[in-house]
Each structure stands twice: as structure tokens, then as C-alpha cells.
Write a structure and sequence with these properties.
This protein has 478 residues and is an alpha+beta fold. The protein has helices at residues 9-17, 55-66, 70-83, 108-124, 131-147, 162-179, 187-199, 231-244, 247-262, 298-308, 314-330, 346-349, 353-366, 372-379, and strands at 200-202, 210-212, 265-266, 272-273, 277-281, 284-288, 292-293, 340-341, 385-389, 394-397, 401-405, 415-418, 424-426, 448-451, 456-459, 466-470, 476-477. A hairpin with a 5-residue loop joins strand 3 and strand 4 (272-273).
Length: 478
Amino acid sequence: MVENIKINAGSLGNWIKSWVQDNGAIYGFHNHSVWGSNPYRLQDFTCGHSTFAAPFLAGVACALSKKMNNEAKELLDVLIEFQATSFQENSQYKHVGFQVGETLQSGLIHNAVANISLGLTAYYGKEYLSSDKLELIKKAILKNLIGTYGWGKGRPSNDSCCNQDYARIWSKLIFQKAFDDYRFKDELPEDIDFMIKNFHRTGFPDEESVATYRNICFEQNDVVEPTEYYGLMICPLIEAYEQYNEKRFLDQAVAICKQIVRSSWVDENGKRRLHKMYYKVNGKWERLDEPMLIAGMGMTILGMSKCLQYHESQEIRKFVEESNETYAFYQTKRGYFVSATGWKAEQDVAPCTAWHAHDFLYLIESADLINEEFWNEFNKEYDKTAVLLGDNCIWVEDNTHWAIKDYYSNEIYKIYGRKDNNKFGVDMGWIPGNRSIDEKYKFQGAPVFVRTSNDILVINKEERQLDIDSIIKKPIKE
């Protein structure tokens, strides 16, 4: 990677925008770089909209509240219209499968994240969104909260998954703030206290630090939440502290932040990283570091930044600063971040619009200034072919096509898709049959990369303008 001087949030937004359809859907290859699953691995082969990408709406709304831009405002209106009207008959949102694609049609977390995002969009857009748009958002959130009533009858329970119920709590807190509607006012402190009592545990890695069990319904709790989910706990705790002025909520948020900082690690490039999780092995808790994401840290770092507004801590502040340095180091020329390290597979290099939407929201919320330069970067046309070289595969994209390609002489991946289509496929090559993909998916004229013993050679017969980044430790010869 080429170490950047600073994070380019405008370039990141421009890349996410390149996946937005005319109707407001946000397409993308939804790669879960913590668990390792994605629609290719699960043979779902969809790359359409995911509600987990909805934080992009909140990021755009926040940026517009700092500096108005007419082109981005028109985009936001379209994004809102799509997300706030895309419902199943059961009042859950459509497209909640994320890394499972359309195979999964039901889930609390991806409904809740959409509500968080719509609520924040309304909050940031109060001064410039039309009354119709604000009312559309309000009705959508209330409708969806009914649609997710099947999980604990709308409240936390012993069957809860910690980050998912915290996300629903956060969505209700944001709803209160955005719409001055306090129908949930009395239940929310009770719900948070339930979560603290039943899910929060000290000892990870010390008694000043708090982790949260992922579930408590099993006979033996042997796993705590992966670190990238802790923003879904810290942010509602801070929001509740702001709204109810109950210090116990702030104290728990601080303790979770300490757990993240004190469990972190430094990778081979000298960059601070989130640990993956703690897992109980033969009765002893062990820390797992990687494989672990880079893109997708955003919600956790956002929560830690919010915590610093009320609790000064040099160790937390230093961690946030070092995390920003990690983002900057791993940002590609195209704007997206390296997804992960440690997988030695497509999970490291295939960028997911959903995870990057979380990063975009964090970067915009924490920005002191959004100026004309940001919007110029956000809105500009990109006319190159972007490449990220991994250990065993390659991500490549232009404005129309994307692919996960092999180095020359390998035939493991050959995955091809289009940014304007919600399906992708695997090129069967010389093998005839009904599994052959349509020619429109094939990335004709894409560069070829040859991995030799000493370096990476580039064959660029079409003489495309290339933006090449790499996580493989070999020199590139174009």
C-alpha cells in the first residue's frame, strides 16, 4: 500500500456512490470480512441492495448539514425514497440478507441498522429535507419496529443477540431525538439496564474493561461480541447518557472502549487494529486477532469518538488517532479501504459497500469541516480501472464491471459482475453447459497480472489507465 497523508472521505463517498442505482438501491459485493462468508461462498450470487449499507444515507445527510450540495441532496432524496419504501409484507425491510444475499429474508440487525440510518438522516436533515420526506422516514421506522416485534416482542430478552437488540434500542433513541416523539421514553432505560445486567462482563482483558456476551441463552457462554460490533453498544449508551443523564450508561461505554483499546494489536505494517473477539477454549478465554477486517471499523470508532466528548482518556484518544492512521494507510487510490487481512483470499481484497458505508458515516460525523473540495471529490467522474492485488486473488473494477480475478495460470475465482446488475457469476471458461455466464458480465480487456518468483507483471493490452494498489509483498512492474 501507499501510505496516504490523510483519509479522503470524498473519494470513499464517490466509490460508494458508483454502486448506487437510479432508484436509490446500493449494490455491492457483500463480503463479511469478519466471519468470512459472502454470496459467492454461499452460492447465492446476488450483489444487489443491502440494508446494511444504509449508513451511507446518514453520512450524506450529515455532510449536507455541514455544507449543502444540490447534486448530493438530489441523491439523498432518491436514497431515502428507496430505503423507506422497500418493505416485505411482514413489515420487515427487503434485502436484509447482507453476506447471505437474498437467501435470507428475515433478521433483526439489518432492519435495525436501516432504522438507525433513516433516523440519523432525519435528524441531520431536519432543516433541509421536505416535510414529506421526514414523514416518510418516521412512518417507515414505526412500521419496521412492528415488523421486528417477533424478536422479544420488541424488547430485549434472554434470547437476544447483544449487538442486535442494542441496535434496536439505538434506533428508538435516535427516533426520539429526530422526531421529538417519546413513546419509548420509559422503556428504553429499562432495556439498557437489562442489557448491562445480563450481557456485560468485566475481565476482557482486565477488571476495568467490559465485553458483552454475544448470547446468554446457551448453557455455556463461550464467545463475546466481535469488536466491530461494539459501536452498536457504545453509541446507544452514549445517546442514552445524553438523553437521560444517567452516568451509569457513560461508565459502561467507557469500560467497553477500554476493552477495545487494551485488546487491540499492531499488524505487520505497524498499524493499530481491532482484535476479532475472545473465545473460550478448554475453559480459558483466548483472544483472536485475525483474520480481521479493516473496512468496517467505523461504527466502533464512531462510538469511541462520542465517548471522548464526555470522558477524557488519553488511551482512548490515542487509539482513535491510530485507527485513523490505519484507515489512511489502507485507503486505495479509488477511495475504498482494504477489507481485511489474514484470510489470504477474496475476503481481504473484495470491498463491501455496506461495511464502507459505516466507515463513511464515521468519517463524516467526525469531520470538522465539509467544504466544496469534499463535494467535488464526491461528485466527480472516475474514468480509470482500479485494482487491488491480494495474496491469491485480485479485485478489479471500472465504472461498469467488477471482478475477482486470478493471477495468470490460476483458475480458482473468475468471478464477474456488473455494478448495474444485482446478480454475478463464475466464468466456467472452456467448460460448456447451462452454467455459463452471459457475455455482458465478462470484464473484457481487463488487465492480466502474472505473479512470478520475484515480482508482479502487468499485461495491459488495452492500455487502460490503472490505479493499482497491493497488499502482496512483491514489486509491481507495469
